[in-house]
Amino acid sequence: MSIRVGKTSKAPDFPIAAVTALENAQLRQNVHHATEVIRNKRALRVRETADWQELRNAAHDIKQHTLKHLDHYLIEFERNCQQAGGTVHWARDADEANAIAIGLIQQYGGEEVIKVKTMTSDEVQMNVALEKAGITPHETDLADMIVQLGEDEPSHIVVPALHKNRFEIRDIFRKKMSLPHLTAEPEALAGAARQYLRERFMRVKIGISGANFAIAETGSVCVVESEGNGRMCVTLPDVLITLVGIEKIIPTFQDLEVFLQLLPRSATGERMNPYNSLWTGVRKGDGPQAFHVILLDNGRTKLMHSEMERETLDCIRCGACLNACPVYRETGGHAYGSIYSGPIGAILSPQLNSLQYSRTLPFASSLCGACYEVCPVKINIPEILIHLRGRVVRDDQKTISGTFSQMNLAMKGAALVFGSRRRYEAAQRLGRMGQKLFEKNGQLEHLPGMAGGWTRFRDLRPLPKQAFRDWWKAREAARPSPESEPRP
Amino acid sequence: MQIALFVACYNDTLFPQTGIAVTNVLERLGHTVTFPLQQTCCGQMHYNTGFHREAAPIVRRFVQTFANEEVVCVPSSSCVAMMREHYEMIAEAENDPAFLADVRALLPRIFELSELLVNYLGVEDVGASFPHSVAYHPSCHSVRVLHLGDKPIRLLHAVNGLKLIDIPNKEQCCGFGGTFAVKNPDVSGAMLAEKQANILSTGAEVVTAVDNSCLMHIYGGLHRASSQVRTLHLAEILASQERAQ
Amino acid sequence: MSASPSAREEILSRIRAAVPADRSDEPENITRTYQRIGSLRRETCLDLLLDRLADYESEILHVAEESGLPAAIAQALNNAHEHSVLVDPSFPAAWLPQGFDIVPDNNLSIHAMNGIPAVVTTCEAASASTGTIYLVHGGPQGRRAITLLPDHHICLLNRSHVYELVPEALAAIASHSSEPITTISGPSATSDIEMTRIRGVHGPRHLTVILYGRI
Predict the structure, then answer these.
(1) Residues contacting A277, CB < 8 A, separation 6+
(2) By the CB < 8 Å criterion, does B54 face chain A?
(3) Which of A204, A329, B163, C13 would be a feasible disulfide site paired with B133, CB 3.0-4.6 Å?
(4) DSSP for residue B194
(5) CB-side exposure of C54: number of CA atoms within 13 Å?
(6) Alpha helices in A108-164 (DSSP H)
(7) pTM tops 0.90
């Protein structure tokens, strides 16, 4: 079985990848600007929504309930979808999902497919698999197209090309669309994309989409979008293949009333996004006459054992946590080395990978909690980060290198120190003595090992000569009366 | 009233003046302060870094040390956040009902400094005087876990001569994050640079917060940049009796 | 027909092994304390919708009764200098204006639909708070492709079908929940280029809403 989450197996550790990202001034500027714009728009929409907290509570409840009964709802979805003329396939992992998709495309004699944005297909690296099988995938989301034509990687869940400015986009389009005189005006760039893609929408007979929601009660699928390419891809082709992570299921049509209010405001700061498409199976005379759903596991069931980890699957991929995160703000998405970046990526990627990869991601956070504050389904991301840190630490402690790592030794030592008043006060005295090696001009400089990370960017005052408890003890000793006897 | 002080391990060792200031303020208000010497740490550093098993004995020690105290004052919002968010979970994981009962009994008696003053003691004007311009940095735990609201602001407003200035993007994390600061030093440094720029843009002479962890980090950057801006814990400002010249 | 029955069984059994053994079969109580019924007066609600539609730079035309619809549709086409309009064959002929090339969608090809500048349909409902129009496809609302390919969509909205909230509008169309549904909230847009919002990437760039009937 091959659980695969994009290119996580090749990604450098976050602290190292972050350095590269931090050196890219253009990227940082773009990320600052983009996240700030969406964050402010979101805040505005939330302020005007009087029942925002109530909506969040309902969404959280619906997701938690659905996941607890996921088998029931998946079966219901499958039954209703198939009754309406769709076909439902099940894929245990990335390879199986790709094999099913390729099998279907070949069955229908297709050599090209048009794709509407789906992170799930990036997760299983479907494009790579398609191309290997001689099938050409055409991304049709403007940003995904920019990324694809630019032979790049997405860097944000909702605005995947935010790391590119208009001049970089113009250069990509000029080259790949053979438009040597194309200007960098955003309208001109969008116009070029419209023309380029219209030709493909009209011609290509097989479409691939993801799903934002799959409704068990009706067997329907819902795609939430802004550009209209989604409508094109799910309506015009003869054959539609929809890849759905099993966590996308919601119980009823009515539940849409909660999610359709939360998602657009959280993702793009709009009251409602331009287009939502909802369809059930196959409809004679309207849209694709062959409809296939691939339900994907790829590690999701592993997250379901613990209630805390299961909460990760509540995610509706709005990207609000990325826009709120002060770490993401500095590094952008590539530093996370996974299609799922930012706070949600820091908990989802490692878990899908069984902590085999992406092990530094749970530590790529200052635990500030801004993500939890904005999450429309109330995923307690900081709590899950700490939980995953626990798993990583326990795993590491089972290895020799982990047992003797600086961090482990320091933490074990500190635990001993905190366990006894005698050792604690001795450690304070030792610290005051030992720091003389590093004292210069009244500051501590160039601390060794791990602590060197501090002094690279920051000054550090030396330990004061007298700890608070020393002052306290001296004051108590100087007191005449017995009423302030120190406690044993 | 008798108030037990849990000064926090890093304040004890690195910022004794904060503990001294808290003592002075509470005594000035007529209360008796006690300092159980058995105290060490709240366990946050271990717990947040993933050393959950190692944190449990540290938590036990804290609970034992303060079990019989009527009220505990903690001049560190991150420590109080640790207690409120994780102590019950840790006790549950230990499968020790007596320990869990002790935790539950103690938690309501623990207060961060500004909570103690404004909520528990009902006081906003502690008789302080500090004629300087001050920028207040709301630390993440104080905002998002303790929901301190404007308690520190109200206390600062009541300080004689103090001019309070708002920091732009004030609720954006300063980048300390405990061991994050050394595990991800580059990102931490970048976050600090932004916070620093925002603070400097206010022109304030002093930056204050309810956590010395943030302030240590902010000081580290300001001092490296040769800035004259001082960092002071809220307690130190509240203890001040400095008059204008 | 479902391929790999073993994958299905394996995934289902993984789920069953992972969830709590004591989960009840009763549906749990979901806290639905969010607003499900609107509080605005009908007239205010309608004004709110008009505000939203104007925000989207939609053209808005008003007629009192159905008898005014042909003139309004004609006006919309003339304003846009369009002479032909696509329409579902079940669209009421009495509402269509004279003097234009009316093209019924008798299973037209994609290329044929693409060549027609305008389309006129009815719609099922609208939610004022979000400025959203809900199409339930089939009948005079047409199959999905006809409101996708032409550049100008003329949409007839009955005033009695305007609701304040999204939950109300969805409840109004709930009996059609298994049919193809499209919600439209302004023209398509992208902010992918330096966060500059650009309208009209795919789908109709021009929307005209004609309101008719009693409130």
Answers:
(1) A222, A223, A225, A230, A231, A234, A235, C144, C180, C181, C182
(2) yes
(3) B163
(4) H
(5) 7
(6) 119-123, 126-132, 142-149
(7) yes
Q: Kindly report the nearest CA distance between residue A65 and chain C, in angstroms.
A: 7
As a whole number, mean pLDDT of residues B174-183 equals 94
Tens-digit pLDDT profile for residues A336-345? 999 999 999 9
Residue of B nearest to A413 (CA): B54
Cβ distance C187 to A274 less than 8 Å, yes or no, reads: yes
Could you count the other beta carbons within 10 Å of the beta carbon of residue A172? 22
Residue A345, both tokens: 């990526």
pLDDT in tens, A74-131: 999 999 999 999 999 999 999 999 999 999 999 999 999 999 989 999 999 999 999 9
Quote the tokens at residue A264.
């657009």
For A17-39, what is the mean pLDDT?
Answer: 91
For residue A1, what pLDDT is reported? 63
* pLDDT of residue B25 exceeding 80: yes
Give dist(CA B192, CA B190) in Å, integer: 5
C23 interaction partners in chain A (CB closer than 8 Å): 68-69
A162 to chain C, closest Cα gap in Å: 7
- Kindly report the nearest CA distance between residue A7 and chain C, in angstroms: 24
From B80, B31, B70, B240, select the one nearest B155 (Cα to Cα).
B240
Q: Of A465, A413, A411, A457, which is closest to residue A439 (Cα–Cα)?
A: A465
Residue A213 near residue A221 (C-beta atoms within 8 A): yes
Order of strands across the sheet with B110-112?
A: B32-34, B2-5, B72-74, B110-112
pLDDT tens digits, one per residue of C30-41: 889 999 999 999
C145/A236 Cβ within 8 A: yes
